[in-house]
C-alpha cells in the first residue's frame, strides 16, 4: 500500500485526532502529522473504521489547525531502531535522541507494543540479587527477573533509593553488574539531572540507556515511553545476553496520562476516573519482565509509584501491587525521623524471595530470620500504639522490651548510609544481634538449631 | 448451529472489539478475523453487522479485510491428553505453541488442544457388547491417561441408542473410531475417544446431590475452622499480597481431590511457572504420585488478551465438568474472578452498554452466579457420583470488600475465606481472618470429623473460636486501660488465644513439614492447645500466678511442634500430650507445697 497523505482531519481534542475519508488503515499503525507550522508530530491509530480513524497524537493536539494538518499513515507499527549503540544514550518516548547526537542507525527495528510471553516459555526467577540494603536483602529479597516496585510519596527519597539500588545491585560472589534502562515519565528536570549525574559519577553511564519525558513534555508521549524502554530492555537482555535492571519512574504520571486520554475518548471510568482497563494496561508493561528458558539475559524491574496522598489503596499503587511481585513501601514517618532509606517493612513484601534465599543461595537461617523479625516488629508496632494511648510507663516489662527493639531496629537495621553497601551476611548478623534482645523462648519462628548457632543473648 | 461457513468483511476495529458485516452469522458463533485469521466470538448482532470480541490483539488489522463465520460456538476438546498440560484461555496448548512460535505467542496460531498423533491404550468396557443400549455418559472403555488418572471414554451428551460395534483393546489415536451407535431414528454415530463441548453451556448430569464429605486441604484454618465440601463453592477475597494465590496453590497441592484444574485468569505468568516447575517434583500425599499427573492448567496471564480471559473460566469449568462426568472429585481454582469480571466490564464498556456500579454491567451478578452454579456434586449419567468444587479468588480494589464483585460473590458462595491485610502484614499466614470468614458446611463436616477423627472435634473447634473471641474483647480493654488492669485468669486467656493463633492457625506454606497437615495432626494440635489452656486455667484458679505458666518450656514447644513433626510422625505429637500433663502436674504439686509452707 502506498503512503497517502490526508488533509481530512475533522476533530482534535485532548490528544486525539479524527480523520475521515480514509480507507483500509491498519489498527495500531504509526502516523505522522504535519501541522500548520511545518512541525512533525507522531501518532498511532487507536480506532479504525471503514472511512474514519481515531489517532492518538503523542505530542498532543494543542495548537492544531484542522485546515492545515497533513496526516500520513506510515503503514508500519510504532517501532524503534536498536543496536548496541543505544547504551550511553538518551532518547524520548518515541526513541528520538535527546542528547543532541544522531539517531541510531540499524536494520533491527522492533515494534514497541511487544507481545505476550508464553507462560510455558518462562523460567521461575530464583537468583538472589544483593542490593546492599538490609530491609530489602534481609526481609524482602529481590531476585533476577522480578518486578518489585517502590511505593513512595511526594518528597520521599525514592529516587535516591532507586539510584542506590542501580549502583549496588549484584549477584552474590559476582562483580558483574546490571545494564540499566532508565525510563522517566513526567519527572522534573532536577530529578532527571539527579539520575544522569548519578550514573555519570558512578561510572556506569556506558551501561545505561535513558528514555526521558519531562514534566513539561507532552503527556501523551508517556504512554509509549515505558513500552519503548522495555523494547530496548528486551533487546539488551535477549539479543545481547545482558542482565537488565529497568527503572520506571514515575508510574503515577504514566497512569494520569492514560486517564487523560481515556477521558477524552469517553471510556467508562472505574475508580477515581481511571479507566477499567488500567489493570490490563499496567500488566502489559510490568509483565514484560522476567526470565525466559534458554535465554541468557534477564529483565528485572523497579517501577517507582508515588502514592497520591500517601494512599496505598489509590488505584495506581493498588493495581500495581496486584500485578507486581511485591512492593517496597516508603514511610513518611520514618523519613521525618531522619531514617534513610525509610522502608516501612510491614506493608513491604517480596513474593519471589522464597526460592532465592536459604541454604544454597544466601544462608540457611535466612527465611526464618525474616519471619521472626516480622513477627517481632508486628508485635512491637502494636506495643507502640498501646504506649501512645496509655503511656510507656504503664507497659509491662515484656512490652517495654518490644519498644526498645523497635527503636533499635528502625535506627540500625532500617537506617543505613546512602553509600553503605551491606553484605547479606552483615544484614543477617545484624538481625540476630537485634533479635537477641529477647529471651530464646520468645523466638519461636526460628529453629532451635538456629538459636544454637546464631543467638547472642545471655538467656 | 449449521456447519456452513459464511464470509464477510471487517468494518471497524476498536481494540479487541471488531465490527464485521457478516450476514447470517449467529450470536455466540466463532469467527476468524482478517488476513491473520485471529479468532473471535460474536457477542451481538445489529442488522447486517456483527460485533465480535477477539481473543488476540488486533494490531495491524484493517477495515476491508475478510471475516469468516465458523458455524460453531466456542468449544473445547475433551479426551485423553489434557492432564498435565497447560492451555491458554481458549484451550490452545501453550507448550506446543512455544515449540512452534517461540517465546512469544504468535497471533493467529491455531493448534488443537489434543495431540492427534499420540496413541492411547484403549481398554473396552467388557460389560458392553453389540446390541447393548447406551446413552450419554455410558462408559465405552478406559485409557490410562496418567499413572493416577484413569480416563473414562464416554458416549457424548446427545447420543443414545444401540451399540453396533466396539473397537477391541489396542492403541488408537483420538480420532480413530472406537464405537458406533445407532440412534432410534436409525442414524449411525461414529464415536472416537474425544468429544467437543460448547463452553458456555453446562454439561448435563442425572441429578444434583448435596455435598457430604469435606474437601481435605491439609490447611488447618480451612479444614478445622472453615471447611469446604467436595462439590462446594467458595471464595478467597483479599487485598494484594494477602495470600490468595498461596491458598489456592496449597489446595491444588494438598487437597484430596482426584483432579485439579488451576485457572490463572489475568494474573502473573510466574505463578503458573511456579506450578509448572514444582508440581512435577511434588508427591501427592494420597497417591504418592507426582502432583502434575492430576493437574491441568489454564493460563491467561494479565498481559494476554483480555477477551480470552473472560473465556478462560468457562474453558476451565467445562473441562472440570468433563472429569466430573467420569465420576471424579474435581477441584477448580480460579485466580482471579475479579479479572474475569473486569474483562466483562471492558467488553461491555467498549459496546457502550450502560454501567451500573463501578463501570460493571448490570449482568455482572447473574453471570457470576451462573459460573458458580456449575459447581456441585452430581449423580452422573454413567459413572456414579462426581463433583466440581469451585474456589475463586477475589481481588477487591483497595481491599474494599463492599465493591461489586466481592459483594455479589459473597451472596453466592458457601465458604468465605476472607484474607486480612493486618494479619498478612504481621506475617500471620494463611491470613484468613477468623472473625469475618465463614463456612456454611461446619455441620456436615462435623459428621465426618466425628466419625473419622474424634467425637470431640466440634467441641474443641468451638472452644478455640470462643477463646479467639475473648482475645478480641480483652485486647480492646487493654487498649483502653493497659495490661495491668487484667486479672491473671484474663491474661491466661490471652496466652491461650495466642497458642491457638501461633500453634494452630498459623501454617507456613513454605515450611517443608508444616505445609501439609493431616486431619489427625490437625486435631492433635487443636486438642493440645485447648488442653494446655484448660489445665493452665485450672491452676490459675488454684492461685498459681500466670507468670509461672508463661515461661514453661511447653509454651514455646506448643508454638513450634507443628513444624517439628510431620503428619507421619503423629505419635510424637501425641506424646507431647503426656509431657504437658506431666509439666502441669508438677506445677500443681510445686504450688501445693508452697501453699503448705506459706
Ligand atoms: N500460607 C502462607 N505461608 C507462607 N507465606 C505465605 C502464605 N500465604 C501468603 N504468603 C506470602 O505472601 C505472599 C503473597 O501471597 P499471594 O501471592 O498468595 O498473595 P495474593 O493475595 O494472591 O496477591 P495478589 O492479589 O496480588 O495476587 C507470598 O508470596 C508469600 O510470601
Ligand atoms: Mg495472587
From TrEMBL, chain A:
User: Which UniProt keywords are given for this protein, alphabetically ordered?
Assistant: ATP synthesis, Hydrogen ion transport, Ion transport, Transport
Q: Which domain of life is it from?
A: Bacteria
Q: Which PROSITE patterns match?
A: ATPASE_ALPHA_BETA
Does this entry carry the keyword Oxidoreductase? Answer: no
Q: Which Pfam families match?
A: ATP-synt_ab, ATP-synt_ab_N, ATP-synt_VA_C
- Entries under InterPro entries matching the protein: ATP-synt_VA_C (IPR055190), ATPase_a/bsu_AS (IPR020003), ATPase_F1/V1/A1_a/bsu_N (IPR004100), ATPase_F1/V1/A1_a/bsu_nucl-bd (IPR000194), P-loop_NTPase (IPR027417), V-ATPase_su_B/beta (IPR022879)
Q: Does the keyword Cytoplasm apply?
A: no
Q: Which GO terms describe its molecular function?
A: ATP binding; proton-transporting ATP synthase activity, rotational mechanism
Q: Which GO terms describe its biological process?
A: proton motive force-driven plasma membrane ATP synthesis
The residue ranges of the ATP synthase A/B type C-terminal domain are: 355-455
Task: Tell me the ranges covered by the ATPase F1/V1/A1 complex alpha/beta subunit nucleotide-binding domain, including all copies.
Answer: 132-350
Q: Where is the ATPase F1/V1/A1 complex alpha/beta subunit N-terminal domain?
A: 14-74
Stored SUPFAM superfamilies:
C-terminal domain of alpha and beta subunits of F1 ATP synthase (SSF47917), P-loop containing nucleoside triphosphate hydrolases (SSF52540)
Outline what the protein does: Produces ATP from ADP in the presence of a proton gradient across the membrane. The V-type beta chain is a regulatory subunit.
> Can you tell me which family this protein belongs to?
Belongs to the ATPase alpha/beta chains family. T3SS ATPase subfamily.
Protein name in the entry: V-type ATP synthase beta chain
Q: Which organism is it from?
A: Thiocapsa roseopersicina
From TrEMBL, chain B:
EC primary class: translocase
Report the protein name in the record: V-type ATP synthase alpha chain
What does the entry list under GO cellular component? proton-transporting ATP synthase complex
Where the record annotates domain ATPsynthase alpha/beta subunit barrel-sandwich, the positions are 111-200
Q: Which positions fall inside the ATPase F1/V1/A1 complex alpha/beta subunit nucleotide-binding domain?
A: 218-439
The protein's gene is named atpA
Question: Which reactions fall under this protein's catalytic activity?
Answer: ATP + H2O + 4 H(+)(in) = ADP + phosphate + 5 H(+)(out)
Q: Where is the signal peptide?
A: none
Q: Where is the ATPase F1/V1/A1 complex alpha/beta subunit N-terminal domain?
A: 12-70
Q: Which residues form the ATP synthase A/B type C-terminal domain?
A: 447-537
Pfam families xref list: ATP-synt_ab, ATP-synt_ab_N, ATP-synt_ab_Xtn, ATP-synt_VA_C
UniProt keywords (A-Z) are:
ATP synthesis, ATP-binding, Cell membrane, Hydrogen ion transport, Ion transport, Membrane, Nucleotide-binding, Translocase, Transport
Task: Describe the function of this protein.
Answer: Produces ATP from ADP in the presence of a proton gradient across the membrane. The V-type alpha chain is a catalytic subunit.
Q: Name one GO molecular function term.
A: ATP binding
Listed InterPro entries? ATP-synt_VA_C, ATP-synth_a_Xtn, ATP_synth_asu-like_sf, ATPase_a/bsu_AS, ATPase_F1/V1/A1_a/bsu_N, ATPase_F1/V1/A1_a/bsu_N_sf, ATPase_F1/V1/A1_a/bsu_nucl-bd, ATPase_F1/V1_b/a_C
The residues listed in the UniProt record as binding ATP, with positions renumbered to this chain, are 238-245
Any idea of its EC number?
Answer: 7.1.2.2
Q: Name one GO biological process term.
A: proton motive force-driven plasma membrane ATP synthesis
Q: Which family does it belong to?
A: Belongs to the ATPase alpha/beta chains family. T3SS ATPase subfamily.
Amino acid at each position: 500500500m502506498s503512503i497517502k497523505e490526508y488533509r481530512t482531519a475533522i476533530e482534535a481534542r485532548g490528544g486525539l485526532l479524527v480523520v475521515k475519508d480514509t480507507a483500509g488503515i491498519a489498527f495500531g499503525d504509526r502516523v505522522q502529522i504535519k501541522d500548520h507550522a511545518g512541525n512533525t508530530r507522531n501518532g498511532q491509530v487507536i480506532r479504525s473504521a471503514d472511512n474514519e480513524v481515531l489517532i492518538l497524537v503523542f505530542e498532543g493536539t494543542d495548537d492544531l489547525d484542522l485546515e492545515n494538518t497533513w496526516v500520513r499513515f506510515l503503514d508500519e507499527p510504532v517501532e524503534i531502531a536498536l543496536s548496541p549503540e543505544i547504551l550511553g544514550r538518551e532518547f524520548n518516548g518515541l526513541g528520538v535522541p535527546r542528547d543532541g547526537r544522531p539517531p541510531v542507525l540499524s536494520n533491527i527495528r522492533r515494534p514497541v507494543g511487544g507481545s505476550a510471553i508464553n507462560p510455558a516459555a518462562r523460567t521461575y526467577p530464583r537468583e538472589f540479587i544483593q542490593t546492599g540494603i538490609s530491609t530489602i536483602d534481609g526481609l524482602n529479597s529481590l531476585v533476577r527477573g522480578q518486578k518489585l516496585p517502590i511505593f513512595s510519596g511526594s518528597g520521599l527519597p525514592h529516587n535516591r533509593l532507586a539510584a542506590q539500588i542501580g549502583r549496588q545491585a549484584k549477584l552474590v560472589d559476582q562483580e558483574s553488574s546490571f545494564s540499566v534502562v532508565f525510563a522517566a515519565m513526567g519527572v522534573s528536570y532536577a530529578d532527571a539531572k539527579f539520575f544522569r549525574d548519578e550514573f555519570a559519577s558512578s561510572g556506569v553511564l556506558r551501561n545505561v540507556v535513558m528514555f526521558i519525558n519531562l514534566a513539561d513534555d507532552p503527556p501523551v508521549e508517556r504512554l509509549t515511553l515505558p513500552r519503548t524502554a522495555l523494547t530496548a530492555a528486551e533487546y539488551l537482555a535477549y539479543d545481547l545476553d545482558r542482565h537488565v535492571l529497568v527503572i520506571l519512574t514515575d508510574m503515577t504520571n504514566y497512569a494520569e496520562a492514560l486517564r487523560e486520554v481515556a477521558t477524552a475518548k469517553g471510556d467508562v471510568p472505574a475508580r477515581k476516573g481511571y479507566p477499567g482497563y488500567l489493570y490490563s494496561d499496567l500488566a502489559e508493561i510490568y509483565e514484560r519482565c522476567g526470565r525466559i528458558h534458554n535465554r541468557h539475559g534477564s529483565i528485572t524491574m523497579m517501577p517507582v509509584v508515588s502514592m497520591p496522598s500517601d494512599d496505598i489503596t489509590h488505584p495506581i499503587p493498588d493495581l500495581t501491587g496486584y500485578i507486581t511481585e511485591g512492593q517496597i513501601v516508603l514511610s513518611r514517618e520514618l523519613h521525618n525521623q531522619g531514617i534513610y532509606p525509610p522502608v516501612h517493612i510491614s506493608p513491604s513484601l517480596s513474593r519471589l524471595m522464597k526460592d532465592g534465599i536459604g541454604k544454597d543461595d544466601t544462608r540457611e537461617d535466612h527465611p526464618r530470620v525474616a519471619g521472626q523479625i516480622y513477627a517481632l516488629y508486628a508485635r512491637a508496632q502494636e506495643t507502640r500504639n498501646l504506649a501512645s494511648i496509655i503511656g510507656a510507663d504503664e507497659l509491662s516489662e515484656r512490652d517495654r522490651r518490644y519498644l526498645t527493639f523497635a527503636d533499635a531496629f528502625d535506627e540500625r537495621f532500617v537506617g543505613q548510609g546512602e553509600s553503605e553497601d551491606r553484605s547479606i551476611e552483615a544484614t543477617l548478623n545484624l538481625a540476630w544481634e537485634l533479635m537477641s534482645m529477647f529471651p530464646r523462648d520468645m523466638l519461636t519462628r526460628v529453629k532451635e538449631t538456629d538459636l544454637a548457632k546464631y543467638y547472642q543473648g545471655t538467656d | 448451529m449449521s456447519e456452513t461457513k459464511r464470509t464477510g468483511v471487517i468494518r471497524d476495529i476498536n481494540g479487541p472489539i471488531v465490527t464485521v458485516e457478516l450476514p447470517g452469522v449467529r450470536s455466540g458463533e466463532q469467527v476468524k478475523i482478517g488476513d491473520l485469521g485471529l479468532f473471535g466470538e460474536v457477542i451481538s448482532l445489529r442488522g447486517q453487522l456483527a460485533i465480535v470480541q477477539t481473543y488476540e490483539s488486533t494490531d495491524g488489522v484493517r477495515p476491508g479485510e475478510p471475516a469468516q463465520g465458523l458455524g460453531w460456538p466456542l468449544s473445547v476438546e475433551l479426551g485423553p491428553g489434557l492432564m498435565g498440560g497447560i492451555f491458554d484461555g481458549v484451550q490452545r496448548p501453550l507448550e506446543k505453541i512455544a515449540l512452534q512460535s517461540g517465546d512469544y505467542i504468535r497471533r493467529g496460531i491455531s493448534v488443537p488442544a489434543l495431540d492427534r498423533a499420540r496413541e492411547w491404550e484403549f481398554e473396552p468396557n467388557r460389560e458392553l457388547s453389540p446390541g447393548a443400549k447406551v446413552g450419554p455418559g455410558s462408559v465405552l472403555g478406559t485409557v490410562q491417561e496418567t499413572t493416577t488418572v484413569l480416563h473414562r471414554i464416554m458416549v457424548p451428551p446427545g447420543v443414545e441408542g444401540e451399540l453396533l460395534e466396539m473397537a477391541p483393546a489396542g492403541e488408537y489415536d483420538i480420532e480413530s473410531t472406537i464405537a458406533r451407535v445407532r440412534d432410534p431414528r436409525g442414524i449411525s454415530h461414529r464415536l472416537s475417544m474425544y468429544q467437543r463441548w460448547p463452553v458456555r453451556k453446562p454439561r448435563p448430569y442425572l441429578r444434583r446431590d448435596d455435598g457430604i464429605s469435606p474437601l481435605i486441604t491439609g490447611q488447618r484454618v480451612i479444614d478445622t475452622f472453615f471447611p469446604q465440601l467436595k462439590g462446594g463453592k467458595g471464595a478467597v477475597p483479599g487485598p494484594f499480597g494477602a495470600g490468595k494465590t498461596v491458598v489456592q496453590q496449597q489446595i491444588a497441592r494438598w487437597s484430596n481431590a482426584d483432579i485439579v484444574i488451576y485457572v490463572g485468569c489475568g494474573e502473573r505468568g510466574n505463578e503458573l511457572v511456579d506450578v509448572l516447575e514444582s508440581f512435577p517434583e511434588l508427591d501427592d500425599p494420597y497417591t504418592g504420585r507426582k502432583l502434575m499427573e492430576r493437574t491441568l492448567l489454564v493460563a491467561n496471564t494479565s498481559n494476554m488478551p483480555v477477551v480470552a480471559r473472560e473465556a478462560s473460566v468457562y474453558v476451565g469449568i467445562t473441562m472440570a465438568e468433563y472429569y466430573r462426568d467420569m465420576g471424579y472429585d474435581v477441584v477448580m481454582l480460579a485466580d482471579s474472578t475479579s479479572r474475569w469480571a473486569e474483562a466483562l466490564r471492558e467488553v461491555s464498556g467498549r459496546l457502550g452498554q450502560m454501567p451500573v456500579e463501578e463501570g460493571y454491567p448490570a449482568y455482572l451478578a447473574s453471570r457470576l452466579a451462573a459460573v458458580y452454579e456449575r459447581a456441585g456434586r452430581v449423580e452422573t449419567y454413567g459413572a456414579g457420583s462426581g463433583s466440581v468444587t469451585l474456589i475463586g479468588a477475589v481481588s477487591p480494589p483497595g481491599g474494599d470488600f463492599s465493591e461489586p464483585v466481592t459483594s455479589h460473590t459473597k451472596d453466592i458462595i458457601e465458604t468465605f475465606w476472607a484474607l486480612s491485610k493486618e494479619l498478612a502484614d504481621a506475617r500471620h499466614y494463611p491470613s484468613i481472618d477468623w472473625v469475618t470468614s465463614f463456612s456454611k458446611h461446619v455441620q456436615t463436616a462435623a459428621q465426618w470429623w466425628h466419625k473419622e477423627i474424634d467425637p470431640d472435634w466440634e467441641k474443641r473447634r468451638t472452644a478455640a473460636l470462643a477463646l479467639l473471641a475473648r482475645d478480641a474483647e480483652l485486647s480492646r480493654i487493654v487498649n483502653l486501660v493497659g495490661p495491668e488492669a487484667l486479672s491473671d485468669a484474663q491474661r491466661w486467656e490471652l496466652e491461650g488465644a495466642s497458642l491457638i493463633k501461633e500453634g494452630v492457625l498459623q501454617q507456613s506454606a513454605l515450611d517443608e513439614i508444616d505445609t501439609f497437615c493431616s486431619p489427625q495432626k490437625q486435631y492433635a494440635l487443636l486438642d493440645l492447645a485447648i488442653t494446655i489452656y484448660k489445665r493452665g486455667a485450672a491452676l490459675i484458679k488454684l492461685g498459681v500466678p500466670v507468670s509461672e505458666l508463661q515461661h514453661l518450656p511447653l509454651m514455646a514447644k506448643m508454638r513450634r511442634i507443628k513444624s517439628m513433626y510431620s503428619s507421619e510422625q503423629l505419635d510424637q505429637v501425641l506424646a507431647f500430650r503426656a509431657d504437658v500433663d506431666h509439666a502441669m502436674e508438677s506445677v500443681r504439686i510445686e504450688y501445693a507445697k508452697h501453699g503448705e509452707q506459706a
